[in-house]
Amino acid sequence: MPSVLIARNLPDSNIEAARALFDVTYRDETQPMTGDEMRKALRDFDGVLPTLGDAFSAKVFADVPNPRCKILANFGVGYNHIDVAAAQSVGVTVTNTPGAVTDATADTAMTLMLMSCRRAAEGERLVRSGEWKGWHPVQMLGLHLTGKRLGVVGMGRIGQAIARRCHFGFGMSVAYASRSEKTLDFPAVRYDTIEKLSADVDVLVVAVPGGAETHHLIGTSVFDAMQPHAHFINIARGDVVDEAALVKALEAGSIGGAGLDVYEFEPDVPARLLALDNAVLLPHLGTAALEVREDMGRMAIANLKAFFDGQPVPNPV
Ligand code: NAP
């Protein structure tokens, strides 16, 4: 049986399934692996199932030039914590779990959109504070989402799932910026720059992968272009956004609000952001539902199984 390190606490059903197939060492921890743990994992196991935050950097691979480990089966679609080129250079295959996360993450984007536009977090704080004086016709007016214009940066699986929800569920028009033109099952207008897109929409959502190519893709020029009533939503990765520029825009009121699931220096959230009433802040809940996490685990295990059976892996990155 191949030896596999499961590097984080997964749903019980995933652990059981993995134990039936592999000689499993289970690191039942909530925190990412340290550099030394990652080096040891590369040296001591045939395969590793890592996840968000396990920073398999070029340095880690360089320190273990002939790893026993030949596959990193990532739990999650986003793999910007793994230097894939460095992994491949030492013969390590990397896989991920696309698709399993799409609907749940799109649902989280809708949650953030509605919460931000309709001031739900601020309203919740008001009720809990005991300071609420009761309904009146102009109490806490927010942005009506139905019929508005959505802008999607990165019209991939999750971007499209968000756009579909907005178009079919909320009667919204859809615009997007993507590197390639998409064939979509709903009407959408493509813009050639993110700034032009940002200027034209009521809600701007980011759904690109993280990593060097998209680092600070969204910054001052985008926030300057947005209309003062428009809301900004990030369910992608924190470092896609220049967080300091976002805080400035929110503090100045030059955009209407922001809904964030991810942060540039996660889990650290700057005090200036915490202090803002026009920011809705979730703790990276994108896929946080048991059945979704079980699906992700099943996909990661299927990648490991295929690899050790000598078959093509279903989800190479
Ligand atoms: P996907 O299907 O690969 O879509 C990504 C989209 O981003 C594609 O449309 C792609 O455009 C675009 N893109 C990629 N690189 C770009 C670049 N350098 N500049 C501009 N656009 C670029 O991925 P997905 O399944 O939708 O997932 C997207 C990301 O969401 C993941 O990578 C992950 O980081 C994040 N995510 C977050 C959570 C959460 O818990 N908050 C959960 C799941 C996923 P082209 O088609 O033109 O190449």
From TrEMBL:
Residues 110-286 form the D-isomer specific 2-hydroxyacid dehydrogenase NAD-binding domain. It holds the Pfam family 2-Hacid_dh_C. Coiled coil: none annotated. It comes from the Bacteria. Residues 4-317 form the D-isomer specific 2-hydroxyacid dehydrogenase catalytic domain. CDD domains: GDH (cd05301). Keywords: NAD, Oxidoreductase. The keyword Hydrolase does not apply. Belongs to the D-isomer specific 2-hydroxyacid dehydrogenase family. This is D-glycerate dehydrogenase. It comes from Thalassococcus lentus. The lineage of its organism: Bacteria, Pseudomonadati, Pseudomonadota, Alphaproteobacteria, Rhodobacterales.
